[in-house]
Amino acid sequence: MDKGKIIRLTLMTLFAAVFCYSAVKLIGIWTTYSENEKIYDDAAEQFLIYTTPAGSGEEPSPPDTTAAPPQTETDESGGTAPSGTVSEPETAETPPETSAPPPAAPDFAPDWAALRAVNPDIGGWIWQSGTTINYPLLKGEDNEEYLRTTYNHKSSKLGSIFLDYRSELGGRNAVIYGHNAGNGKMFATLVKYKSRAYYDANPYFYIMTEAGTKKYQIFAAYQVTTDSDTYTFAFEDDAAYEAYLSKILMRSAYNTGVTVGAGDEIVTLSTCTNTGKQIRFVVHAKRIEG
């Protein structure tokens, strides 16, 4: 075998090996995405109790199954049409099917007792209208516990949506983490807040706990490093907190027009990006209801 053929064969073998390795890796990644998605889809189906629309309460009317009596067709002279002829019914134009818009506020309540039976670390449920954010909210003893573990204790690279162990819902700055999954799930939609248009379409989210439902309004979004003082949980006094709020407003990718002050309770949502291991994208929101 000449030298050229040996080189070509070697290259073909190398390319085939790289292709096979890449295919196996991709299959593994998408299997992880699929398994994680099913876990949380099943959680929503199992633990969310949907309510009837407000103001309803009427039972739907049963369909009318009574057949209409046959009608005879008359010709232009007023006589009955010959046997065997059938009149063509008038056809009404069928309106195009349209999907109902997503509810603006949660139309469900989590089954807290059932959730606690699965994992007592579940302390809430986070939901955003029209997006994929619809997950149980956990809090572990540290920030590693649910980084690679689902709410029902299964090992997964995509883990859970979880609260920083150093912060509390209802505190001045509750920080919540979630992976930026390649299939658009978990907290992947957060990076879309780089766009002002996306913010305008999705300015609110909700967090439910046993104590009630809180509505949050987003006021800032930007990229930051993991060692940033964005991840501050405690403040000496109102002045220190107001200085922090001013700083994060200045960092925002755009001015939302939402004001925030010392009397506000905020939540910071944080996810990873594809721009570096130490780079995160954060979204800040203040509680406006609940």
Please count the beta strands (DSSP E, at least 2 residues each): 10
Name the CATH architecture of one domain.
Beta Barrel
Ends distance: 79 Å
Give me the number of helical elements. Answer: 4
Biggest sheet, open or closed, and with what strands and sense? 8 strands, mixed, barrel
Oligomer: single chain
Mean pLDDT: 82
Structural class: alpha+beta
CATH-level-4 superfamily name of one domain: Sortase
Characterize the structure shown:
An 8-stranded mixed β-barrel has the order 3-4-5-6-9-10-8-7. Strands 1-2 form a two-stranded antiparallel ribbon. With 290 residues, it is of the alpha+beta class. It is globular and about 80 Å long. The chain has a domain at 38-49 and 102-289: Sortase, Chain: A, CATH 2.40.260.10. The chain is built from 4 helices and 10 strands. Mean pLDDT is 82; it is low at 22-26 and 54-92.
Fold topology:
Blueprint: H1 3-47, E1 48-50, E2 108-110, H2 112-118, E3 122-127, E4 134-138, E5 161-163, E6 173-177, H3 196-201, E7 204-209, E8 212-225, H4 238-251, E9 266-272, E10 279-289
Task: Characterize this entry briefly.
With 290 residues, the chain is α+β, with helices and mostly antiparallel strands.
Key attributes of the depicted protein:
4 helices; 8-stranded mixed beta barrel; alpha+beta; two-stranded antiparallel sheet; Sortase, Chain: A
